[in-house]
Amino acid sequence: MKNTYKAHVALLSANLIYGANYLIAKGVMPNKIGPSAFVFLRILGAGILFWIIKQFIKEKVDKKDFKLLALCGLLGVTANQLLFFNGLNLTSPIDASIIITAIPIVVLVVSVFMLKEKLTQFKITGIVLGSLGAILLITYGNNTQSTSSVLGNLFVFINAVSYSFYLVLVKPLMKKYNPLTVITYVFSFGFVFMFPFGIKQMLETDFSTYTTNTYLVILYVIIGTTFLAYLFNIFALKHVRPSVSGSYIYVQPAVTFIIVSLYTYFLNDTTYSQDISGIKILSCLLVFSGVYLISRNKKETTKS
């Protein structure tokens, strides 16, 4: 199998993992574990695994780059994961999965201000459509007939903004060093910044109430959603364009919609069935259209 095909398989696998994570992780919060304590375990567990693999990569990091690595750890790990899990704890998995797809749009906006990237008609239209979809979805959290939450949706959106800044800032580091080296240090700094926010909930967690299912969920988030998904994305970025990698983000809400439907019709679990509505489908289409216009413009620019 060619590396390009392997890259597509890796991207599909990573986003399938992410898509399922919305319901799997939410299933144990907050009854079994608080969101900040969950992040504590996620960063610590994945960080240890990254350091184990890092031992096979002998690469030194320039002292001048540690400040940027620390900032990437703050934005890409600490703020990103704390905001996401606390937001997911409050709102619908469907809402969260749709809002996350706005990341390519936010990355473009950040690039305009930080990298002076030029705006075109396609990009402006994409930003407007995507913003309308995100705003519509966030404000729709007032609907009491669903599990949506304005505050939860806002946390997830701020998480997307934080992660977008991280993607822009980490790019030069990824070019300079082995990506695994970068991620290992980013997770290390992320753990340091996260520690004061997560340690209290961590110490308050009653592990005596945990079942086998609870431990399996935690392992899924640490090994699957964090460790493996990051490795899949690293491998894929070596063989395909970033725009191709970004397009796979569409898989996440699709997987979440499918899982919610399966829960409803086969397991008779209607917890999130009311979260699928015309407004949310419209929001999803607006965000998808915005990302499509931005991606389409990038491809055309590359060809010319």
How would you describe the overall organization of this protein?
α2 runs antiparallel to α3, α5 (103-114) packs across α6 (121-139) and α6 (121-139) runs antiparallel to α7 (150-176). The protein has 12 helices and no strands. Helix content is 77%, strand content 0%.
SSE order and pairing:
Layout: H1 3-26, H2 35-54, H3 66-90, H4 93-100, H5 103-114, H6 121-139, H7 150-176, H8 179-204, H9 212-237, H10 242-247, H11 251-266, H12 278-303
Helix pairs in contact: 1-4, 1-9, 1-11, 2-3, 2-8, 2-9, 3-7, 3-8, 4-7, 4-11, 4-12, 5-6, 5-7, 6-7, 6-12
Task: Give a summary of the structure in a few sentences.
By secondary structure, this protein is mainly alpha-helical.
Q: Note the total helix count.
A: 12
Give the overall shape.
globular
Total number of domains: 1
Q: Give the strand content.
A: under 5%
Query: What is the CA–CA distance across the termini?
Result: 31 Å
Biggest pleated-sheet summary: none
| Count of distinct strands | 0
Radius of gyration, Cα only, in angstroms? 19 Å
What brief labels describe this structure?
about 300 residues, about 75% helix, disordered C terminus
